[in-house]
Amino acid sequence: MDDGVQDPLLQEENELLKRRLEKLQAWRQKGIAPYALRFDRTDSTARLHERFRDLPAGEDSGYRTSVAGRLMALRRHGKATFADIMDAEGRIQILATLDGLGDPRYEDFLMLDIGDFVGVNGVVFRSKRGELTVRVEQFSLLSKSLRPLPEKWHGLRDVELRLRRRYLDLLVNPETRERMLIRSRVVKELRRFLDERGFLEVETPMLHPIPGGAAAKPFKTYHNALGQELYLRIAPELYLKRCVVGGLEKVYELNRNFRNEGISYKHNPEFTMLEFYWAYADYNDLASFLEDMLSEVILKVKGELVFPYQGRELDFRPPWERVRLLEAVSEAVGTRLGPDTPMEDMVVLAERHGVSVEKGWGKGKVIAELFEKLVEPELWNPTLVMDYPKEVSPLAREHRDNPFLVERFELIAAGRELANAFSELIDPVDQRERFLEQLRMRERGDEEAHRLDHDFLLALEYGMPPTGGLGLGVDRLVMLLTDAHSIREVILFPHLRPEEV
Predict the structure, then answer these.
(1) pLDDT > 60? residue 4
(2) pTM passes above 0.70
(3) For the chain, what is the mean pLDDT?
(4) Are 187 and 222 in contact (CB under 8 A)?
(5) The predicted structure's pLDDT at residue 501
(6) Contact assessment for residue 418 and residue 477, using Cβ atoms and an 8 Å cutoff
(7) With 90 as the cut, is the pLDDT of residue 265 above it?
C-alpha cells in the first residue's frame, strides 16, 4: 500500500542521480563530450605493476604511460587529489594536482565522480608510502556514470540483487570476478585437453524438431516460415552420434542445454555441458579418460587436487573410488535388490525410505530413485558409480554380463552428479525397441520419457562403430572449484523470477 512516504534510500539515490545529470550537462556546456569514442592506452594496470614491481618508495620512474579505467575511489586534499582506477586486470592509483594540471583543468578533474571512466596520461612513480602511482599530466572523461556504485558491504549484500544486477556484483565483489575468471579457465583447459587428444569441436543445432538425448521437459517454440514446432535442445547427444555415423570418430561440443524444469541450488533452466563421443571406446575407457582429464584440468586451474568445499575437504586425486549401483543401493536399504526382487517388495522398501512409487515405474526406475535419495547425497569425494538399470538408460548399451543393466556410469562428487557416460547403444533394432518402450512410458504419464526420433534410427541403420559418450556439467564443476553453494553463483546471468515493480 502506498502511504505517500518515499523510501529514504531511494530518495537519496534519486538526489544523487539528479546531481550527476547536472554534471553531465555541465561537461557538455564546457564543450567536452561526456561519452568518448575511443582512447589510446599503452598499458594495463597489471602491466605497470609488473614492470615497476621493484621501483623503490619515493622514486620516479620517468616512464610516461596512458591508462584507462573506472574511478573506484577519490580522495580530495585541496590542491591534490588521489584516485584509484580499475581496469579488467586490477587497480592503480593516480594523482592529480593543481600544479600539474593547472586551472581550470584541475577544477574539471574535481568534477569527476566515482564510477566515471577516465583516460590518464602521465608519469609512473612510487609514493613515499609505497603505492605505485601515475602522476596525471592529462586526463579525458571517457564515460560519465549517472548512478553511484554500491558500497561492497552496505549496497550489494542482497543475494538476489547481486544476481539480478550482476554487472554491479562484478564491479564491487572481487570474489565474483574471480569465479568468472576461473570458469573461463576451466572451459579453456577442457578444450585444450580434448584438442590435444585429437577430438574435433563441432556445433550442432540448438533448435530440434524432436527433443532427445535426455529425460527432461523441453522448451517449445514455433518457426513461422517452416510452419513447425521446434524445441530448445535438452542435449546434443543424438546429433553428435550422427557425426560419428558420418565418420567423425572423436567429436565434442561445449554447449548450452535448456530444460523446462525447476530452479534450485544445482539447477538452472539453461546450463553448460561438455559432451564428447569417442569411436571404438567403451565406458571403461571413458572412466579412465575422465579421471585423467579432470585431475589435469583441476590441477592447472586450481593448483591442487585436494581443496575445501563448503567447509569440508574434497579430494580429486586419482584413482577415484568405484562402486556398483546395485550394490550401493542394496547396502543402503539393508537387503539385496535386483531383477529377481518382487516388485511388491520394492514398493514397500521404497515407501519405507520416503520414495513414492508412481504408476508405470518398473524395478529399474525404483532402484534408480532409491539411489538418488539414499546413496548419491552421501558420496562426497569423487566416485564413479557403475552399471545403471536399463529402464532408466534408453540410449546406453546393454551390460555385457547382466541384461537388467547397461554400461553406464555417473561421476558423483560433493553429493551431486557431475558427469554421465555410456557405452553407446549402436544396435538400431534394440534402439527402436527402447524408444517404443519410452513411448509407452509417455502414454502412462511420464512426461520426461524419450521420444521416437526416426531420423536418428535411420542414421543408426547405416551403421555406427562401437562408441563411448560422456557429458560433463561445466557449471557444477566450477561450483566445486570456487566453493559456490549455488549454481547461480557461477552463471553470469542466471534466471530469476521477474522483478516486482
Answers:
(1) no
(2) yes
(3) 93
(4) no
(5) 55
(6) yes
(7) no
Residue 276 clears pLDDT 80, i.e. is over it: yes
Maximal CA-CA distance, the chain: 92
CATH of 9-143, one of 1.10.300.10, 2.40.50.140, 3.30.1050.10, 3.40.50.2300: 2.40.50.140
User: Half-sphere exposure of residue 330, counting CA atoms within 13 Å on the CB side?
Assistant: 11
SS3 label, residue 476: helix
Cα atoms found within 13 Å of the Cα of residue 289, Cβ hemisphere only: 24
Q: Which three cell numbers stand for residue 158?
A: 542482497
Residue tagged 518457426 (cell numbers): 223
Mean pLDDT across 281-309: 98
Phi, psi angle pair for 449, to nearest 5°: -65, 150
Residue 196 reports pLDDT greater than 60: yes
One DSSP character per residue, 339-396 reads TTS-HHHHHHHHHHTT--PPTT--HHHHHHHHIIIIIGGG--S-EEEEEEEGGG-TTB
Closest CA to 22 of 111, 108, 150: 111
List 84's β-bridge partners, or say none.
73, 93
Domain ranges of the chain: 9-143, 172-320+381-489
Cα atoms in the Cβ-side hemisphere of radius 13 Å centred on 311 = 1
Superfamily of domain 172-320+381-489: Bira Bifunctional Protein; Domain 2 (3.30.930.10)
414 in Cβ contact with 329 (< 8 Å): no
Backbone angles phi, psi at 267, to 5 degrees: -135, 135
Per-residue HEC secondary structure of 153-172 comes to HHHCCCHHHHHHCHHHHHHH
Report CA-CA distances (Å) from 208 to 68, 205, 260, 436, 469.
45, 7, 15, 20, 20
Mean pLDDT of 262-274: 88
